[in-house]
Write the structure tokens for this entry.
Amino acid sequence: MALTAEERERAARLLREAERHAVPVEPLSDLLPGLDLADAYAIQRANVARRLATKSVVVGHKVGLTAVAMQKLLGVDEPDFGHLLDDMVHRDGGTVSATRYCCPRVEPEICFRLARPLRGPGVTARDVLEATEAVAPALEIVDSRVRDWKITLVDTVADNASSAGLVHGAWTPLDTVPDLGTIVVDLLLDGARVAAGSGAAVLGHPAAAVAWLANTLGSFGTALAPGHLVLPGAMTTAPFVTAGQRIEARFSALGPVSLTFT
């Protein structure tokens, strides 16, 4: 790794404090020019481990940077991933305080719930579908603890892939829904449609993103576990949200999911 252990700990501490106080920091890639991708994932894991030590529980993972436009923006050719913890999950139709976040955005996604483990390498999209018990309409709250979202790949990876929260709607057994690549979604902010997209926007098919995740986690010696939730990536752009706004996503075949920021 390019950073020393002391530098990685400093970076992890900066991100923890930024999240705790909802006050962003300057890009880690500027503060620590030697930061590389291995360092960034090590920083992410260190902060997840600290949360686990305070009784938080990993409930799944999220995949980011599945859209070609975002990959081009950050100069990368593959996604990244972050962890989902139980204290990041909110109730469908509920409220969340905008003051918890630095500069939140919301993305509509198809949430997977696994019935069987997935361990890479060699996991395919077909394997993912065979291991999936059910899917649900979901909104991911993404938030950069880096000031003004001035992020490079290593900045967002270190920052838990910019993940900050999750709300999902009702579960539907996978064998009763159409091809996930054909599912479409309308994203509404205070009742006005602000974006629309489809499952095909997620690496061509959401299951392909979950397969990428399983294979990438395999290289870290980790597997996706039964019961785990997976957010495979955004189906639309991610609008900023502020206090007083209600965000809703309406999915074909899956139904709606919503959250209000107070």
About this structure: The mean pLDDT is 96. The CA atoms of residues 32 and 206 lie 34 Å apart. The domain at 58-261 is CATH 3.90.850.10 (Fumarylacetoacetate hydrolase; domain 2). The longest strand covers residues 132-142.
